[in-house]
Write a structure and sequence with these properties.
The protein has 436 residues and is α+β, with helices and mostly antiparallel strands. Among the domains are: 57 residues, no CATH class; 52 residues, no CATH class. The chain is 34% helix and 23% strand. It has 13 helices and 15 strands. The strands form three sheets. Strands 1, 2, 3, 4, 5, 6, 7 and 8 form an eight-stranded mixed β-sheet that branches. A hairpin with a 2-residue loop joins strand 12 and strand 13. Helix 7 crosses helix 8. The N terminus is likely disordered.
Length: 436
């Protein structure tokens, strides 16, 4: 690192988020969670699905958030996001010529020249300003906070400026800049806040974050993030110019009608247009949809719970639920099915529609016309009054191996209600007690 005017001192600061299993975080000696606080955080996790901040060192030692960490463990969280503490180098002075202002790290909508002029006068009068914040990647100093101070210092013909120099890349500077001035300095305008949100939503990695996480980073409300995300999604799929031509050609997408209007002694014919604009499509719970964007693009998903502008879904091929934006899904396109080429193929299709699989024989192969062999039959106690479906299901399960039974119950449990799960548990518990 190029030398600064005064000696640097090392302190620490919060850095990027790290996905980690809670059990992999080491605890310092003597740290004990607060039971009441853990219960409170568990309720937050159930209702909102997000944990308070957990801060760790680069080697996964807990610094802050013991109560949140304990709540995550009790809830059986397999993966959480923890903030990793980074090294921050604080230096008193840095040469203005060494600071990079052109790396896209300015998150405001623009520079206020009036403020720059006022700051320049204050610099000449000997005023003291807070240190600017830059990130050093080993080659460049990327300015993250203090553009007005830096530009005005140059106008005042200063050669150096006080700065907090932190280890990090240009992306680290951008990520820090979106939340700069949210609680200090020149007050941000609505355009400044919008630009900060768009900066994160325009990045392939950061746009995958939830509205609440982006709002926390930018220092805004999560509803604002959701609204701008929706606007950007609409803008990406609609070209403004072609939209104007389409409106002209289709008559504003409406139906034109005429009516008579009397004004004084004159009668006019007034043409009105009734809008036929369709409401945006919103999926229903349990609906099967096609994912059009994001990590699961091109896959089929089942909508379970809709929360705001996202939905909790089960994606085809995954056993865990994920959150997908409503703007990233569309109704499943039904592919036209060709007529069956033979009777056998038609029977196979009917078999699949009934949920009976693709095997040529549904039930286990039992010797026919050879008499009854009790050693080859499952030990099922069947009464004449029992439901036929119950008997068939019990018979099929009895022919499965332990591993197959485990797989069958795991697949079925995803669609079971709480009452069904409790009934299965009670039945297995009673059978286990009899076997003992």
């Amino acid at each position: 690192m190029p030398q600064t005017t005064e000696t640097a001192t090392n302190i620490s600061t919060r850095g990027d988020l790290r996905p980690i299993n809670p059990t992999q975080i080491s605890l310092p000696e003597g740290i004990i969670p607060n039971i009441k606080e853990v219960e409170r955080i568990r309720e937050i996790l159930k209702n909102k699905g997000s944990l308070p901040d957990i801060i760790i060192t680069s080697d996964n030692v807990l610094i802050h958030g013991i109560d949140a960490l304990e709540a995550a463990k009790q809830m059986g969280q397999a993966l959480i996001l923890a903030s990793v503490q980074k090294l921050k180098i604080e230096a008193s002075k840095i040469q203005l010529a060494n600071i990079k202002l052109d790396g896209g790290t300015q998150s405001r909508a623009g520079i206020n020249q009036q403020v720059v002029g006022e700051y320049a006068v204050a610099w000449r009068d000997g005023a003291k300003f807070p240190a600017i914040i830059v990130f050093y990647d080993g080659e460049n100093y990327w300015l993250a906070d203090g553009f007005h101070r830096c530009i005005s210092a140059k106008q005042a013909n200063l050669a150096e400026i006080e700065a907090d120099i932190r280890q990090g890349t240009r992306r680290d500077a951008v990520l820090y800049s979106v939340g700069a001035n949210s609680s200090h300095g020149l007050r941000r305008t609505n355009e400044d806040k919008r630009r900060a949100i768009q900066t994160l939503l325009g990045d392939d990695e950061w746009k995958q974050w939830s509205d609440r996480e982006i709002a926390r980073r930018c220092g805004v409300h999560h509803d604002t993030v959701g609204r701008i995300r929706g606007e950007l999604a609409t803008t990406q799929t609609t070209d403004n110019l072609s939209g104007v031509f389409r409106q002209i050609e289709q008559g504003s997408q409406g139906t034109q009608t005429e009516r008579k209007v009397n004004r004084g002694t004159s009668t006019y014919t007034q043409r009105t247009r009734k809008s036929s604009k369709e409401k945006p499509w919103i999926p229903k719970e349990t609906e099967i949809v096609e994912v059009t964007d994001g990590e699961h693009k091109g896959k089929i998903a089942e909508v379970r719970v809709i929360t705001g502008n996202t939905a909790m879904c089960f994606v085809d091929g995954s056993t865990k639920h994920v959150h997908i934006y409503l703007s990233h899904m569309q109704p499943q396109q039904e592919k036209p099915q060709e007529p069956p080429a033979s009777v056998t193929e038609e029977l196979k299709r009917q078999q699949q529609n009934l949920g009976l699989g693709t095997r040529t024989q549904i039930f286990p192969d039992i010797p026919r016309n050879e008499g009854f062999n009790p050693e080859e039959q499952p030990n099922l106690l069947v009464s004449g009054s029992e439901d036929k479906a119950v008997i068939e299901a019990a018979f099929a399960l009895s022919k499965l191996s332990p591993e197959q039974i485990n797989q069958a119950l795991a697949k079925a449990a995803f669609s079971w209600s709480k009452a069904q799960i409790e009934a299965a548990y009670q039945a297995l518990h009673q059978s286990s007690a009899k076997a003992a």
